[in-house]
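General statements about sequence and structure are easier to judge against a single worked case. When preparing material for the folding task, we compiled for one chain both its residues and its backbone structure tokens. The amino acid sequence and the backbone structure tokens for this protein are reproduced below:
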Amino acid sequence: MNPPSRPKKSFGQHFLHERRYIERIVNAISPRPDDFLVEIGPGEGALTFPLLAAAGKLTAIELDTDLIPRLQANAADVGELSIVHADVLKVDFTALAHRAGVSCLRIAGNLPYYISSPILFHCVEHAAAISDMHFMLQKEVVDRMAAEPGSKVYGRLSVMLQLACRVEPLFEVPPGAFRPPPKVDSAVVRLVPIAPEARHDADPDRLHTIVKAAFAQRRKTLGNALRQWMDTDAIRQADVDPKARAETLSPADFVRLAKVETAS
């Protein structure tokens, strides 16, 4: 048996090792033999091998070349493991689904906390090719993802994810479940992309611009925060009060703002 890998700070590695939490995550995912599973950052394989045993095959995306030989060796008697050596932010999930001949992927992973938001946004860009996602993240990030309008942690991440997915926090995971223990609590969350026919029809780039600007300076009113993109009359056309602040608006309010046509 190979000795445990030494976690690398440069990759933000914290290896999950406590069996009961591994089992809870696998049960939440509930893998089936016909699933096309993709794991982001398999690490030492704590989730990889139980998922592989249940589904029979799995594609793992791993950037750390030192971990790949161990994963390949340990998977030999478990199932068919394909490893993509790449930065997940450069992986085209839509193309991956097409190459595999499947309509949708199921994605899971213990995401590096320092780049969790970029990974989430990257996955959302490929939501049409994903049936669900199960991620372990810093609890603070999960709280932001699921926050409702009016919450102190409600912000751009909340709005953009909730417009693309159903966000369902599942359970918390303490620092002691990892090696080395992180300095923060973690949580597992399920994301289920909204069906294409039920998603908003606002221009994605304009929506992103409006939401980002609105939350850039949270204490500003919308009339001030969005003045570069729309005047107060245009804000009122969206049935939104220009004196309101971003954290009081629902995701649907931002969609209406993005759809208002303004004079060029």
In short: The beta strands are 15-16, 37-40, 57-62, 80-85, 105-110, 130-138, 165-173, 178-179, 186-193. The radius of gyration is 20 Å. The chain has a mean pLDDT of 91.
